[in-house]
Write a structure and sequence with these properties.
alpha/beta; eight-stranded parallel sheet; binds N-carbamoyl-L-aspartate; three-stranded antiparallel sheet; 18% strand; 11 helices; binds zinc ion; single chain
Length: 351
């Protein structure tokens, strides 16, 4: 298969940042994806519908004229989220759920959750209103090996949580382990998972090839090859519980290339080309459309997009760096060539 035509896809997990940084990168997402679920880990975090709607307006104002992109917002769940906010989300179509960050798990997670049990009343209300919970699934105890943090979070917290709230809609975000895949596959209730392009393409060796590679550092951290194989197989089996979420997370170059580099890979610039490259590795290009364009919309109970995007087997050169606010961002696979290219479809212009 050398040419692919897909129903317009959606990105169910993206970091668009804010201000001039956002203005520099939002176009990369908006020109390919019909919708994106925008993560709320700004400083301060987006914890209220009002704030999310204002953030959404800033995103819309940064789009090119005529671009039809629909950013959907997630609120940052905290221990002081009021129950009324859940009802508000349920009646606000532009805001579709809450993101749970364990405190200290990742970039800008200082306001996150310390005790999951304390959330039970809120989760009860979310289940009642059918408002989904998107989960960053890692324990944060510093004495737990970083490569075990996702598996342990599932065993300690997520499995029991799905037992306590059987109707709660849960998305395990950026799954990085076989245990994460197994959890989503076996869960009894309405449970799904997103998979990033970088976790499908790289294993943890990529962090250290020829020296330390800060642009491959993300959270959850890349895992062993057997985990990558499990993720690839989950993405390409046609299972509607797995769908696309890039977790594209741009940072200023100087913050990544530092004595304490921060976590996040910027993949939005060639997102669909990267996913096509991963699916191609296991001869599963025919499964890309379901993963990228059907399963997520179906899970969130939203209509599938209209319009198409096209990809062809032709090399794409990834730039060495891209503008990003006051500085630059190093794109994922900077300076490399990948075998797929997205072609503009003239009949889609302005879409
Ligand atoms: C994300 C970021 O930079 O905002 N970083 C990352 O490594 N994925 C936060 C997140 O999604 O964990
Ligand atoms: Zn993220």
């Amino acid at each position: 298969m050398d040419q692919l035509s897909l129903l317009k896809p959606d990105d169910w997990h993206v970091h668009l940042r804010d201000d001039d940084a956002m203005a520099a990168i939002v176009g990369a997402t908006a020109q390919v994806f019909g919708r994106a679920l925008v993560m709320p880990n700004l400083r301060p975090p987006i914890t209220r519908v009002e704030q999310a709607l204002r953030y959404r307006e800033r995103i819309m104002a940064a789009l090119k004229p005529g671009q039809s992109f629909n950013p959907l917002m997630a609120l940052y769940l905290t221990e002081s989220t009021p129950e009324e906010e859940i009802a508000r989300v349920a009646e606000t179509p532009e805001v579709i759920g809450f993101k749970l960050y364990p405190q200290g798990a990742t970039t800008h997670s200082e306001a996150g959750i310390r005790s999951l049990e304390a959330l039970d009343p809120l989760l009860e209300t979310m289940a009642h209103y059918q408002v989904p919970l998107m989960v960053h699934g890692e324990v944060t105890d510093s004495n737990i090996d970083i490569f075990d943090r996702e598996a342990l979070f599932i065993e300690r917290y997520l499995e029991p949580l799905t037992q306590r709230f059987r109707s709660l809609r849960i998305v395990l975000e950026h799954i990085s382990t076989k245990e994460g895949v197994d959890f989503v596959e076996r869960a009894q209730g309405p449970v799904a998972g997103t998979l990033t392009a970088h976790h499908l393409l790289l294993n943890r060796n990529a962090l250290f090839v020829g020296g330390i590679q800060p642009h491959h550092y993300c959270l959850p951290v890349l895992k062993r090859e057997n985990h990558r194989q499990a993720l690839l197989s989950a993405a390409t089996q046609g299972n509607p519980r797995f769908f696309l979420g890039t977790d594209s997370a741009p940072h200023h170059r100087s913050l990544k290339e530092s004595s304490c580099g921060c976590a996040g890979c910027y993949t939005a610039h060639h997102a669909m080309e990267l996913y096509a490259t991963a699916f191609d590795q296991v001869n599963a290009l025919d499964r890309l459309e379901g993963f990228a364009s059907h399963h997520g919309a179906d899970f969130y109970g939203l209509p599938r997009n209209t319009g198409v995007i096209r990809l062809e087997r032709r090399p794409s050169n990834i730039p060495l760096e891209l503008p990003f606010g006051s500085e630059s961002v190093i794109p994922f696979m900077a300076g490399k060539t990948i075998p797929w290219t997205r072609t503009e479809d003239p009949s889609n212009s302005g879409d």
